[in-house]
């Protein structure tokens, strides 16, 4: 953020405000961690803040401080529309286009509030009055930490805020292994631990609470893996029938796509997951090195994200979707093999 943006935000927050805080649809650890952390902070500063998620989020995140007070737009439609309509400020976190909030987009587009965007994805839209966008950041949670610092309030961070921010940084950096993890990220994490973040407990709550059905689903996913050695690529597919067979719950497939990248020489990993209710295949793309899955997703699958992590979708059936994906690889062979 530049000086003018910081001063403008300080002015907006100088008096008590009605505030809505919104993550993207299907929120992950960074989205929930950043929105809850910001909500705790703004509440401590005397504002009336609410987190409104477009839909539900995974059970392994529901231990987080304040998670039980998150409004679900799908489930609390009338109440959440009222909060949005009456909000004076709306913070949108971990996304940069209203297309990422599903059916909630219309309510946001019609709101009269001033918008503050905090996000680290590429190519942000221009809907916000104040935009804090930095694609080099490890996570939106690290940006929320910085935002609190810009307000001169790092001393306000307590154990609850620290746990929320730590969770988002840890999950969005792959437990601190991704390229966007900087020395400054580690300094932020160290300060969060000093302020009460319980790193061991957070890791256990996120990664060590699997159900037997989730592990069986992982086994199914790995059995379905196809390796295309010619393109240093691996992909996984899961149909709705397979998800139902293993009693799929929201969040169960989190991280499955990354298994492809654990294979020697694989530089591009993809997972195709059927969502029969929406009539689409949701697609997650991951890469190592300089191969941009953000560009790949934007160019071919109505998506986007980061250089090494992005998402997309296909409205075709599984066979057509995979055939289309494979047909694209020859034009990227040089980038994937050199």
UniProtKB/TrEMBL annotation:
<feature type="domain" description="DHHA1">
    <location>
        <begin position="245"/>
        <end position="329"/>
    </location>
</feature>
<feature type="domain" description="DDH">
    <location>
        <begin position="18"/>
        <end position="169"/>
    </location>
</feature>
<keyword id="KW-0378">Hydrolase</keyword>
<dbReference type="Pfam" id="PF02272">
    <property type="entry name" value="DHHA1"/>
</dbReference>
<dbReference type="Pfam" id="PF01368">
    <property type="entry name" value="DHH"/>
</dbReference>
<protein>
    <submittedName>
        <fullName>Bifunctional oligoribonuclease/PAP phosphatase NrnA</fullName>
        <ecNumber>3.1.3.7</ecNumber>
    </submittedName>
</protein>
<dbReference type="InterPro" id="IPR003156">
    <property type="entry name" value="DHHA1_dom"/>
</dbReference>
<dbReference type="InterPro" id="IPR038763">
    <property type="entry name" value="DHH_sf"/>
</dbReference>
<dbReference type="GO" id="GO:0008441">
    <property type="term" value="F:3'(2'),5'-bisphosphate nucleotidase activity"/>
</dbReference>
<dbReference type="InterPro" id="IPR051319">
    <property type="entry name" value="Oligoribo/pAp-PDE_c-di-AMP_PDE"/>
</dbReference>
<dbReference type="InterPro" id="IPR001667">
    <property type="entry name" value="DDH_dom"/>
</dbReference>
């Amino acid at each position: 953020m530049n000086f003018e943006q910081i001063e403008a935000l300080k002015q907006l927050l100088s008096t008590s405000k009605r505030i809505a805080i919104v993550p993207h649809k299907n929120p992950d650890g960074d989205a929930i961690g950043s929105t809850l952390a910001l909500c705790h902070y703004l509440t401590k500063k005397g504002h009336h803040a609410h987190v409104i998620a477009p839909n539900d989020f995974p059970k392994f995140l529901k231990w987080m401080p304040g998670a039980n007070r998150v409004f679900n737009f799908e489930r609390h439609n009338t109440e959440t529309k009222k909060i949005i309509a009456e909000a004076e400020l709306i913070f949108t976190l971990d996304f940069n286009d209203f297309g990422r909030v599903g059916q909630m987009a219309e309510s946001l587009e019609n709101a009269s509030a001033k918008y503050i965007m905090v996000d680290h994805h590429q190519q942000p839209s221009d809907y916000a009055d104040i935009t804090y966008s930095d694609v080099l950041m490890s996570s939106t949670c690290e940006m929320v930490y910085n935002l609190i610092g810009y307000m001169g309030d790092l001393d306000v961070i307590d154990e609850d805020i620290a746990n929320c921010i730590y969770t988002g940084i840890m999950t969005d950096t792959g437990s601190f292994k991704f390229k966007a993890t900087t020395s400054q990220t580690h300094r932020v994490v160290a300060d969060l631990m000093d302020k009460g973040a319980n790193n061991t407990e957070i890791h256990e709550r996120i990664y060590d609470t699997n159900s037997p059905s989730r592990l069986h689903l992982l086994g199914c996913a790995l059995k379905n893996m196809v390796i295309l050695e010619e393109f240093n690529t691996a992909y996984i597919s899961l149909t709705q029938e397979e998800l139902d067979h293993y009693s799929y719950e929201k969040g169960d497939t989190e991280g499955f796509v990354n298994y492809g990248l654990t294979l020697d020489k694989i530089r591009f990993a993809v997972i195709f997951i059927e969502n029969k209710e929406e009539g689409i295949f949701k697609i997650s793309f991951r890469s190592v090195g300089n191969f941009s899955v953000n560009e790949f997703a934007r160019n071919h699958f109505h998506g986007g994200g980061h250089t090494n992590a992005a998402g997309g979708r296909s409205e075709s059936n599984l066979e057509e979707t995979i055939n289309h994906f494979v047909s694209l690889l020859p034009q990227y062979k040089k980038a994937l093999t050199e």
